[in-house]
Design brief:
With 372 residues, the chain is α/β, with parallel strands linked by helices. The chain has 16 helices and 15 strands. It folds into two domains: 3-257, Aldolase class I (TIM Barrel, Alpha-Beta Barrel), CATH 3.20.20; 307-370, Arc Repressor Mutant, subunit A (Orthogonal Bundle). A nine-stranded mixed beta sheet has the order 7-8-6-5-4-3-2-1-9, with helices on both faces.
Length: 372
């Protein structure tokens, strides 16, 4: 099996917290429109596809950037090519990341016709002052409109992404956001703690003292709150930052966490095939130039050792509800973690270690303990 990630590197505006490999049309070419900078992008992606293995495909994920800025027919070309070349499993999960402001009923019907069956909207917050700090462009009211349109169009699985810990966000602000998200006709929630990345506008604002990050205790309270509210609403946690209704877990992300094989198409995209990891040149123009010149877009690669693979499997498994098999740890690691049973950070079920909500707050520390 081989999953595909397809990177769409375009955004209308760069959010203040974002350090993803995305570009506005003007950053790529002065005064250019999205249509101009992206007109031959899919052609390049299809050229890269020719280098991938031919295994059957269980999941495809279009991320970015803002994939929903591109017409359904363009993204559909990639799906059709993967289907014709590799074949899709009968239940292949095909996800589209979308900005709530960038979808219409017609576009959503087009995405379904192209093969998408799952959509994830970047909601982030229901509070206008929080969205303003994040530099998000959408109107909070448009999230419900977009979700309702997606459901009416026929999407069977709908997710929203949330961010907590934005400067100026209170626990009550966060509670209101989660309440609003859970009131939507959705099946899945991802909630991520805000990480301030060096070089972003937000990092500069914090460095100048214009904004102040929340204290760790508030961040912990925010995590415990979303976990409790999701559980109460029938959304079970299945990974540190993800909750879903039964049968609506994101299988593409689970493939990452289980170290399955995947191929990343697009500039800056990472791939993992067997014991090899590699990643493409970051800039879309350089990416296109290489492929149109019949050159590989791969920038660097690394061969993983058995020890690296083992350590990564522990790091990833401990993040998941299915848990970490005790037999995958050496005696030192088992002994180290045993101490956290009495403190309420982990439970042991069927010879598997599972983190409690409190344990998930210190997941990184528990990974270090597990590695002995």
């Amino acid at each position: 099996m081989l999953s595909f990630y397809v990177h769409i590197p375009y955004c209308i505006k760069r959010c203040g917290y974002c350090d993803f490999n995305t570009y506005t049309p003007n950053e790529l070419q002065d005064g250019a429109s999205l249509e101009i900078v992206s007109n031959d992008y899919i052609d390049a992606v299809l050229l890269e596809l020719d280098a991938a293995p031919l295994d059957e495909v269980p999941t495809i994920f279009f991320g970015g950037g803002t994939p929903s800025l591109l017409p359904a027919k363009d993204l559909g070309r990639v799906i059709a090519a993967i289907k014709a070349r590799n074949g899709l499993t009968s239940d292949c999960e095909i996800t589209l990341e979308a900005n709530p402001d960038s979808v219409t009923e017609e576009k959503l019907r087009g995405y379904l016709a192209a093969g998408f069956n799952r959509i994830s909207f970047g909601m982030q917050s229901a509070q206008t002052h929080v969205l303003a700090v994040l530099d998000r462009t959408h109107n909070p009211a448009n999230v419900k409109r977009a979700v309702d349109m997606a459901r009416a169009a026929g999407f069977k699985s709908i997710s929203v992404d949330l961010i907590y810990g934005t400067p100026g966000e209170s626990l009550d602000d966060w509670r209101a956001t989660v309440t609003e998200a859970l009131s939507l006709d959705i099946d899945h929630i991802s909630a991520y703690a805000l990480i301030v990345e060096t070089g972003t506008k937000l990092a500069a604002q914090i460095k100048r003292g214009d904004l102040t990050m929340p204290i760790d205790d508030l961040m912990a309270d925010m995590y415990l709150l979303v976990d409790q509210m999701c559980n109460d609403a029938g959304f079970a946690w299945y990974e540190l930052s993800n909750w879903s209704k039964p049968g609506h877990e994101c299988r593409h992300n689970i493939a990452y966490w289980k170290s399955a094989n995947w191929w990343g198409l697009g500039p800056g995209a990472h791939s993992h095939v067997d014991k090899k990891r590699f990643w493409n040149v970051k800039h879309p123009t350089a990416y296109k130039h290489k492929l149109f010149a019949k050159e590989s877009p791969v920038a660097e690669s690394e061969q993983l050792t058995d020890e690296q693979l083992h350590d990564e499997s522990i790091m990833l498994a401990i993040r998941m509800r299915t848990g970490l098999a005790l037999t995958s740890l050496n005696k030192q690691g088992q002994d180290n973690l045993q101490a956290y049973v009495s403190t309420g950070h982990i439970v042991i079920l069927d010879e598997h270690i599972q983190l409690t909500a409190q344990g998930r707050l210190i997941a990184d520390r528990l990974v270090r303990e597990a590695l002995g």
